[in-house]
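Technical note accompanying the year-one report. For the benefit of new consortium partners, we illustrate the data format agreed upon in the data management plan: each record pairs a sequence with a structure-token string. No post-processing was applied to the example shown here.
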Amino acid sequence: MASVAGAAMGVSLLPTSVLAAKPSSSAPKPTPNTVFDTFHVTFFGPGIDPSSIGDFNGFVGVADVQGTGTGTNPDGTTETLLFDTDMRFMSGVYVGQDGAVHKGTFGFV
């Protein structure tokens, strides 16, 4: 009981700004050279960093797959459709938005 009372008194000594502070985010910072501000996607090619994560050190796998497929309409007719996918994974260490170093694996399709 005494420890609970002591903890309550200790918390009351903290400034309210500390108690109300939002926890910092460990989410990665996007690279500054992104194509879309919403998705933070970068194109890839020779000499271009494909990670899309700022302050990143690790491995990146990239697949740009293009082709055709067959779509079936509600009336039963079919048509040839084109597709183009950009799939990536990233695994390594990065500096998060909180300024700390984190380890993680990310991917998107």
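Partners are asked to follow this layout when depositing records. Strands lie at 56-72, 78-95, 101-108.
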